[in-house]
Structures are given as C-alpha cells and as structure tokens.
Design brief:
The complex is a heterodimer of chains A (about 475) and B (about 475). Chain A is α/β, with parallel strands linked by helices and about 475 residues long. Chain A has helices spanning about 20-25, 50-55, 70-85, 95-100, 105-120, 130-135, 140-150, 170-185, 205-220, 250-255, 285-295, 305-320, 325-345, 360-370, 385-395, 405-410, 435-455, and strands spanning about 40, 60-65, 90, 125-130, 160-165, 195-200, 220-225, 260-265, 295-300, 350-355, 375, 395-400, 415. Chain A is about 45% helix and about 10% strand. In chain A, α2 (about 50-55) crosses α8, α8 runs parallel beside α11 and α13 (about 325-345) runs parallel beside α17 (about 435-455). Chain B has helices at about 10-15, 55-65, 80-85, 110-115, 115-130, 140-145, 150-160, 180-190, 215-225, 240-245, 260-270, 285-295, 300-330, 340-355, 370-375, 390-400, 410-415, 435-450, 455-460; strands at about 30, 70-75, 105, 135-140, 165-170, 205-210, 230-235, 250-255, 275-280, 335-340, 355-365, 385, 405, 420-425. In chain B, the strands form three sheets. Chain B has a six-stranded mixed beta sheet, sandwiched between helices. A four-stranded parallel beta sheet of chain B has the order 3-2-4-5, sandwiched between helices. In chain B, α2 crosses α8, α12 packs antiparallel against α13 and α13 (about 300-330) packs parallel to α18. Classes of the chains: A alpha/beta (about 475), B alpha/beta (about 475). Chains A and B meet through β1, α3, β3, α4 and α5 of A and α2, α3, β3, α4 and α5 of B.
C-alpha cells in the first residue's frame, strides 16, 4: 500500500485506510474516528497542562501552578518524574466542590500565598485545566486582583504568567507551544534591536537544549533559548533539596526577546491544532507573533533531525552570524555521512512505525526517508489504531516514546526509544536527537537495533557483521 | 533512640513552625512520637498551593477498580485522566488483561459545549461490543457533572442494551481527595456484589485490599490454600466480575489496605452481615497474624495447626537470611512516606526485624487511629506526618539523618537528590514485598540501597571543585 508512505501530500488524511475528510475529525464519529472508533483507545497524546508545566519548568525561579483539581498536578508530576527522574514540583489550587460552584478565586489566592511562602519563586506560571476553563475562571482577573490587593504590602511579588490550557483543546504539544506564546506575549518588550537571536526549540530533551546552546556559542551567536529546562529537569546531584532547581531562562532574558534580530523556531504544526471554536484563524506561534508584533524575522523550520534538516538550520545560523560552520561541527557532519555510508544497507528498505508529537514525528519521518527507511504515521491516531494498522504496514521497528512498547512486544520487533515519555528506561534526559551529533546517536541506535534483531533471530550466533 | 539528633518540644518548633517550612494550615498535621502529644489532624483536604503528594477522587477510584481485569474501564472526560492512568499499576492478572487498556471519550471543546452524553453512549457501546467485558465501569471526571451529562442514564441505557452491569463511577476530581475516591470505588464494587449466587465452601474468605502487585496476591492464595481456607473473591487484585458478584456468599472479609477497603467491608457487613478483620501482609509478624486470625475466626484447630506449621517452616527458612541482613543493617535509619498508614505500620515493624530504625512515618490518607498506633509503635522522636509535600519531606529526612527513604514514584527523586537510598513500595514495584518471600525481597532491597558503594560520592566533596 504505497499510500501509507508519509509525505506532505498524505500526512493528514491517509487515503486507502478508510480515513478521509468525511470522517476524519468528526467528534461523534458520524463515520467513526480513525480506526472506526468513537473512543480513544490507549491515547498517544497527553493533556495541555502537561505541556504548559514543562515550559514553566524552563523559566528560572518558576513554580508552575495548575488551576484545577489536585489530581492534575499530581498526575503530571508523576508522569514527568518517571521520565526525567528529577523532582518536579507543581502546585495545585486544589479545587473543591465549593470552588467549582462559587469560583476558584479563594483557592487561587491561598495557593499563590502558600507557593510564595514555601518556595519564594521569582515566577509563578499558571496553567488552566478543563475544570477551571469550563466553569469560566477568569485567571487574568485573579492575577490582577491579587496584585492589586498586595500592592501596598511592600512585598515584591513574583512575575505571573498565565497560559490557557484546557485539556479538551489540542494535546500536550499544543499546551507547550501555547505556553511559549503566552509567556513571550506576557514578558517580551522592545527597547532597541540587538545583535541577538531567540531560539524556540520546542519540546526537546535536556540534552538537545544543551547541544543547542553549545552550538550557538560555537557560532559566537548571542541568544536567548526558551524554554530552557536543561538543568531544572536534568540537574546534578545537589546534596540539598533545591526547592526550585537551578537553571532556566531568566525573566530578564525573556523580556529582551523583543529586541532580537531573528527568531528560530522548530516545528511544523506547533499549536495549530489548538483551535478554539470562536477564533480558529488567529492561532499564532510565538515566532509568528514576534514577527507581527516586533517585526522580528522568523526562521521557522522543522526540528533539525537528519543531515538535510540540520543543514538548513546551520545555514540559518551561518546567515545570522555571518560565520562558517565551526570546524568540529563540520567534522561531526562528515562523520555522520561516513556512518550513513558504512551502515546504509542495514536500514535500507526497512519500515518504521512512528508516533508522538506531530512536530517530532514529521521531523523523524523526513530523517527516515533520508536514510532509506519508510516511515509510517497516522496523524491523530491512538495506539490501538496504530496497532491494528501495523498489521497492514508490517513495520520492522518502532520509533517513538516508550508507550508503544506493547506493540513492539506483541510484534516481536525492536522499539527505538526517542522523545517523550520514556518511562521504562534510564537516560531519557541525556538522549540527544538534534543536529549532526543527535542524528549520529539516533542513527547508531537504529542501526544497532536492527542488527541486534537480526542476530538474535539468527539460527547461528555470529561474531562479525 | 536517636543519639545526638533528638527532636523534642524544645527544638521541634523552630525549623518546622511558623516562619519555618511548615505552612500555618499544616501545623497540626505533624507530630513527634513521645515528646509531642499533639494528635494528628488528618482527614482534611490538602492546602491549595502545597504540592501535596496526593492525587484526586478520580485517581482513588481508578487505582482501586483498575485491577478488575475482565471489566471495561472507560473514562469519560478530556484525555489527560485516561492517559495518565494507562497501565498505571503493576496489578497482574492470571487471565484477561482488558484492564491494561486505557479507554477515554476524549472530550473536545464542542462536547463540552453541546454535551458529551451521546459520545459516551456510543463509545461505551462500541467498546463493549468489541471487547465483550463482564461489566463496565464508566468514570466521570471533573467536568462531566459541570457540563450536565447524565452518566447514570447512559449507564442504564447501556445496561439494557448490552445485558452486562454498567456502573457509573462518579469521581470528579474536585469532590474531595484520593481517599474519597476509594469510597466511590467501594460503592461501585458494591453495586456488583449480590448479583450471582454460586455455591462455595463454608470456610471461604474474600481478600480485600490486595492489588496483586508483582503477583503478591498469588503468594497469599498459596498460604491460605495450605491452611485449607477457600478464597472466594479477590478485591480487586486479579479481580473478576463474577467472583465479586458472588462475594456476599463468603464467611469473612479479610481486609488489607484498610484505607481503601474498610468501607466496602462495612457495606457488606450492613447488607449481608459478613464480618471483617483488618490485616497486613508485610513483615513476618503481621503476615503470620493474618493467617492465625483467619484460623481463629473459623475456630478450626486443624487450620490453626497448618498455619502454625507453615509459619514455622517459613520463618526457620528465612531467619538465617534475615539475621545476615540485620547484622549489616543495624543502625540504619529509614523514612517512610506511603499512601496508606496501615502499610506504614507494617513497614515500621518489618524494618525493625532487620535492624533498621524508623525516624519518619507519614502517609497520604491515614486516620487518627492509625496515627495513634504509629505514635505508640515508634521510638521517641519519630516524626509523624499526614499529607506531606516535597518541601517538608526533604527537610525532615535531613533533620533526622535518614539513610533510606521508602515511598512511591514521586518521592524517589526527592530522596535521590539529597543522596538517600530509596525503596519503592508502591504500585509499580516488580518484586513482591508481601508474605514471607516478600520480606526477604524487602530486606534485599533495603540492603542494596543502603550498602551501594555509590553513596561514597555523595558523602564527600568533589575533589575537583576548587
């Protein structure tokens, strides 16, 4: 079924799989959802407040507050802790029946007071939930009132950032991008254009963020990277419990984003699925907003996974900096090409089943094609649908987060773990995906997974390839 | 006794009190064994902004009902609640594994505006038709009541249509804490009880409150079998709808994890006059008492003799190993923070068996009686805490110089970040910790974490740092 192969033409509706415009997005499943089901079975997506919390963890001195029931914060903490293996403190306004009926302003105030008392944060990042959005909580109003009431106390209040992240709109990925946008809208100011850039890498790993910073420094580019959770969610052993872990993009730096001469943002779909019924057309990415508000040139490009995508990114850096690719990065590219050559036949013609955040999957899919692997992906599908469709695809391996493990196990094929979440292995925060170096790591892992699979399933044990 | 680091009335308040790390609202939720006569003020909602380790009502109901493996569990709401509870507990099943799938109505904005009842009906119907479950649980999350969906009505229609019990689990997250969710789960289970009447032996028990984590239930079944006790329904570990529906025919409810299951025992007592007893399967003492108590209940000498023999055999088999661990672990200090307080009590005793002293005991959902028991059981100076949070816990373990932390997934990074060994005593564990062999596993794990050579890098300063 050649129509399964992913390209721009068929990424959205997969013709021939029983999915077309007529039944694709219909919520009540007039013709059924993907796979013919009204229900979501083993969801691939998480909810928007998780994405928001991740962004808030990337701001220096920030404590996230989820405005809703206590479970939201606890579940999201647990989910993130299992991936990052780091403390993840997220406060909740702990809605009760009373707050659901009469409004959550009292819980909001108590929550903020207690966070300030316990954590002394520089920033409090507030994400809404399905509950607070449905009962019509006015969070900007709560913030305004709180500031006003505390104006004369002389206490220095933290900076407040609010992102609207109802769980019934989009997924954690949209929650992430929306919060990046909300934060920049809240803080970014313009004084005068400086010779600096803003980089918005999206939902990548702490190792990816560290790599980006190293690369930009090697290019000699002054930058603000946001959100930077490379340290807050992958910290060294600290001996003392840091109430708020060190690291993160500072408020000062986010404010200065308005002065940047360019923005680089990675992604393809961003928060575009976060469509509220009333204003579908007005969804902007942070880069697009900066361009429209402050006329900052926006370099929008896919996540730099693979040589072609990384080249495009490096080209942009060359243009911005006026400098050539630093030598040791050039050599990384060279070694990657060398590795592609050495191992090309182990991957050629193999079929990979992909899943995860759309920005990540489209980048991975392009990389697969670059090395001769056929990628398969169904937009918006849940794991059970993927599992059923895998009978038609007959993938050789899975490329995605750890939640697809059960499909790989059932099919007795390898799963190469990438992205978020990875709950069943160590080192997720040290996993690199981006640039020549990240691609090299990915390539080695994919090649070795396939070689190992062949060796394990061989009737004779062999010692050479 | 703790030397050199004793906390009493004179030094208890400064670090913990006003201006310290304890929030004003939480002052009464912390106590110290011996020195401080304060009664723990538990059973209350978590304070807003406190980063409680607890979850919500939905979570409480979900984790208790989750192991019923031939039932369909459909979560009605936006996607998060279903996604975060997919395959969340290591509850093993000897048969069907329908419980390991995560089903959601995945409500979208238009459903929130126009109502999600029709979608729920369609979703449940298609899933029941596809998976042929023995019953279905439909969980209502936060917004379901707010948007006005009549889940009860949908369940009645589904029950008429499919002929299986379809039970509405009314669990909006904001209606209390995790503990209230336990009650909701008990009510839901109770709706199944009494639906069938299958003949069972007279000396039959139901096991309540074991969730068959890492196959722990199967260890217990083996013990009871050796004693000649018939186990009727297991609620909910390796649980089946039919056995639960027949649970009212058992002679006795044996309740572990009393925080979650006492209410079901009460409902069954009121309706079917089934007596219940509270037990714990952790540690030698409590495990043995659980077996003896059952034999005593049936007034059966043969059963008691078999139990004694088995206990004797098990203990003589494991004593040399435990002595070996005790010799090496004596002097180590442990902090416990777990979901249920009754489990904490067993842990204190089990740790004592291997020479480890407990210096902090806390739980998310303990009752005043539990905390009084803990106070009496623990050494003077032990900190006792209800519904704690990372700020407090990290402070307490430093204060008491604990070597090992026993808790769940959210406590692990707290312990590790401050250089403390950690033992997972929660839902995801892969090694059984219940029963006699569980005690050995427990000792092994405590030993592994207390004795790992890696701690030498956390105790000394980095030689390369100027």
């Amino acid at each position: 079924m050649t129509t399964n192969i992913l390209d721009k033409g068929n990424l959205v509706p997969l013709q021939g799989l029983g999915v077309d415009k007529g039944n694709f997005n219909s919520p009540l499943g007039v013709g059924g959802r993907l796979g013919g089901y009204v229900s979501t079975r083993n969801s691939c997506k998480l909810c928007a407040p998780l994405g928001a919390s991740l962004v808030f963890k990337g701001i220096e001195g920030c404590v996230p507050l989820i405005h809703g029931s206590q479970g939201c914060a606890t579940y999201i903490r647990r989910y993130m802790i299992s991936h990052y293996k780091e403390p993840v403190d997220i406060a909740s306004s702990n809605f009760s029946e009373e707050s659901t009926i009469y409004g959550g302003s009292r819980n909001f105030i108590t929550g903020i007071n207690n966070i300030i008392k316990q954590y002394k944060p520089k920033v409090i990042g507030i994400a809404s939930t399905c509950l607070s959005e449905t009962i019509g909580e006015d969070i900007p109003g709560h913030i305004h009132n709180y500031k006003e009431e505390n104006a004369n106390t002389g206490a220095k209040l933290p900076t407040f950032i609010h992102a609207s992240t109802p769980s019934y709109c989009g997924s954690h990925a949209e929650g992430f991008h929306n919060t990046v946008l909300a934060t920049i809208k809240t803080l970014a100011e313009y004084e005068n254009v400086r010779n600096e850039i803003t980089i918005l890498p999206g939902m990548v790993s702490p190792a990816d963020i560290r790599y980006m910073k190293e690369l930009l420094e090697d290019f000699g580019i002054k930058y603000t990277l946001f959100p930077d959770y490379s340290e807050t969610l992958d910290n060294e052993y600290t001996a003392e419990y840091q109430l708020i872990p060190t690291g993160g993009t500072t408020v000062h730096d986010i404010q200065r984003i308005g002065n940047s001469k360019a923005t680089i943002e990675f992604g393809a779909s961003f928060n575009k699925s976060f469509t509220r019924l009333k204003d579908k057309s007005s969804v902007q990415t942070a880069g697009e907003w900066l361009e429209s508000k402050y006329y900052i040139r926006n370099y929008q490009m896919p996540l730099p996974i693979g040589i072609e995508a990384s080249d495009k990114f490096m080209e942009a850096l060359k243009t911005i900096s006026g400098k050539e690719l630093p030598e040791h990065h050039r050599k990384e590219r060279g070694r990657l090409v060398d590795a592609y050559i050495d191992a090309h036949k182990y991957v050629f013609g193999k079929k990979a089943l992909l899943y995860g955040e759309e920005d990540f999957v489209t980048a991975m899919a392009d990389w697969c094609k670059e090395i001769g692997v056929e990628p398969f992906y169904i937009k918006g599908a849940d794991f059970e649908t993927l599992k059923e469709k895998a009978n038609e695809f007959q993938p050789d391996f899975l490329l995605g987060n750890s939640k697809g493990y059960y499909i790989a196990r059932e099919r007795k094929i390898p799963l190469v773990r990438v992205g978020f979440p990875i709950h069943d292995r160590f080192g997720a925060n040290r996993m690199l995906h981006l640039g020549y170096r990240g691609t090299q790591e990915l390539f080695d892992r994919v090649v070795n997974a396939l070689i190992e699979y062949k060796q394990e399933n061989s009737p004779i044990g062999y010692k050479y390839l | 006794m703790i030397e050199g680091h004793k906390i009493d009335e004179t030094n208890f308040n400064p670090p913990l009190g006003v201006g310290g790390i304890l929030l004003d609202e939480r002052q009464k939720q912390v106590s110290v064994a011996g020195a401080n006569e304060r009664t723990i003020d538990c059973n209350k909602a978590s304070v807003a902004g406190s980063v409680s380790q607890r979850a919500c009502v939905f979570c409480g109901s979900r984790v208790v009902l989750y192991p019923i493996s031939d039932a369909l569990h459909l979560i009605h709401g936006p996607i998060g609640c279903a996604a975060y509870t997919w395959d969340i507990r290591g509850s093993l099943s000897s048969g069907p594994e329908l419980h390991r799938l995560s089903f959601s109505t995945d409500l979208q904005e238009r459903d929130v505006i126009f109502g999600g009842e029709k979608k729920l009906y369609q979703a449940a119907l298609e899933l029941i038709n596809a998976h042929k479950p023995k019953a279905a649980f439909i969980y209502s999350t936060c917004i379901v009541g707010v948007i006005g969906d009549d889940v009860e009505r949908a369940c009645r229609m589904l029950e008429d249509e499919t002929g299986i019990p379809v039970i509405a689990v009314e669990a909006p997250g904001f209606q209390g804490s995790k503990k209230d969710g336990y009650k909701v789960a008990c009510e839901s289970i109770f709706k199944l009880v009494g639906r069938v009447n299958n003949p069972i032996p007279a000396k039959s028990i139901n096991i309540l409150g074991d969730f068959n984590l890492a196959g722990e239930l199967w260890i217990l079944l083996e013990y009871y079998k050796k004693m000649g006790v018939h186990v009727n329904a297991t609620i909910t570990g390796d649980g089946r709808v039919e056995a639960i529906s027949n649970a009212h025919n058992a002679a006795l409810n044996v309740v572990q994890c009393s925080g979650s299951m006492n209410y079901l025992a009460k409902l069954m007592k009121d309706e079917y006059n089934i007596p219940s007893m509270r037990v714990s399967y952790f540690g030698i003492e409590d495990m043995s008492d659980a077996l003896y108590d059952v034999a005593r209940f049936f007034k059966d000498d043969d059963m008691m003799n078999k139990a004694r023999e088995m206990v004797k055999e098990e203990i003589s088999r494991m004593m040399p190993a435990l002595a070996w661990y005790k010799e090496r672990l004596t002097g180590k200090k442990a902090a416990i923070y777990v979901g249920g307080a009754f489990k904490a009590i067993s842990l204190v005793k089990a740790l004592r068996l291997i020479g480890v002293q407990t210096v902090i005991v806390g739980s998310q959902t303990g009752t005043p009686e539990d905390y009084e028991l803990i106070k009496k059981l623990c050494d003077e100076g032990t900190i006792i805490v209800d519904d704690s949070n990372p700020v407090e816990l990290s402070h307490f373990v430093k204060e008491k110089q604990a070597d090992i932390f026993i808790g769940g997934v959210k406590e692990r990074p707290i312990a590790h970040k401050i250089g403390l060994g950690f033992c997972d005593h929660n839902h995801e564990r892969k090694e059984p910790l219940a029963g006699y062999e569980g005690m050995i596993n427990f000792a092994k794990e405590i030993y592994a974490t207390a004795m790992s050579p890696v701690w030498k890098f956390t105790k000394t300063t980095d030689p390369l740092t100027p």
